[in-house]
Amino acid sequence: MNIYVINGPNINLLGSREPEIYGHDTLDSISKECIKQGLKDGHDVKFMQSNYEGEIVEWIQEAIKNKIDAIVINAAAYTHTSIAIHDALKSFSGFKIELHISNPHLRETFRHVSFISPAVDAVVAGLGADGYSHVIELLADLQKHYK
Amino acid sequence: MNNRLLIINGPGLSDLSNFNEFGYDDLTLEKVQQKCLETCESLGLTLEFCQTDDEIELTNYLTKACKEFDALIVNPVGYSHASSLDFDIYTSNIETITLQNKPVIEVHIANIFQKGIDITRPIKVSEGSVGFVSGFGIHSYDLAIRAVNKKLRKN
Q: Is residue A134 among the annotated active site residues?
């Protein structure tokens, strides 16, 4: 499978940004873990991060054009604001998963609404940085049995 | 000794034919239980898997989870937002478990947000953390079990 893992704003600060919430793993270590897990299952994982909403929209459009099999998206703070990312995801017909390192529903009320959730197949939150590799590990099974 | 995991399924989950509309044909709770057993066995976890339509029984299970189990996975269905049970009792029970630093994960078979973001409210605790997995069909449980196992190994 070809998989895009797309990360939104401030995720490049992982490891130093509020580690009591987000843990000590850095973006680089998570990226390596995802690619390693993907290789194990024969997936090609492309790991991306941007602080710009428009760039994230363009990556989703690229995934549509390149017929990518699955998108794992941690839209970070854009989760709660971006109808543009919601719309782009709606046009992507592959499997799409919303991921968060912490559980936004346990945090400030402005994080309780996600514009991403209704546009995706599945949601994973609060499993820490391990959530990424758990999801990638599961994708092989999902491809076989899900749709 | 193996770590002990309790999986609680809330009201209505004895009949999974409602999930046909989400594309999960022929899903039964027995199949879910079988898959959970296999995953737990492969990871060396001891599993108790239960389902109840009764709110008092659910509370009893949660109390049991505090005392006798190392981790909890709960599929509350609409429980977290549409229960006649005193909501405080429910969340405080879950909070007792998260405060013990035991992994707790809420699972749902379908993506509960697909029917609108305003209708559904996941479990909220003010202390400790609850993981959330929704929309992977039978695999939601699988993912949650793997995550619980990883966290238990780290603790």
A: no
CB pair distance less than 8 Å for B133 and A123: yes
SS3 B21: helix
Q: Which CATH architecture has domain B3-154?
A: 3-Layer(aba) Sandwich (3.40)
Higher pLDDT, residue B101 or B91? B101
- From residue B153, alpha-carbon distances to A22, B42, B43, B70 in Å are 19, 15, 11, 11
* Cβ-Cβ contacts under 8 Å, A120 against chain B: 111, 135
State the Cα–Cα distance between residues B14 and A51, nearest whole angstrom.
Answer: 45
Its domain, for residue A62, covers: 2-145
- Is A100 marked active-site? yes
Among candidate residues A22, A43, A86, A132, the one labeled active-site is A22
pLDDT digits (tens, 9 = 90+) for B12-35: 888 888 777 666 778 899 999 999
A13: CATH: 3.40.50.9100
In chain B, which residues have their Cβ closer than 8 Å to the Cβ of A125?
131-132
* A137 contact residues in B (CB cutoff 8 A): 146
pLDDT-derived band of residue B83, with 50, 70 and 90 as boundaries?
A: low
Q: Count structural domains, chain A.
A: 1
- CA contacts within 13 A on the Cβ side of B72: 29
Nearest CA in chain B to A102: B131
Cα A79 to Cα A7, A114, B98, B105: the distances in Å are 11, 5, 26, 21
The whole-angstrom distance between B49's CA and the closest CA on chain A is 21
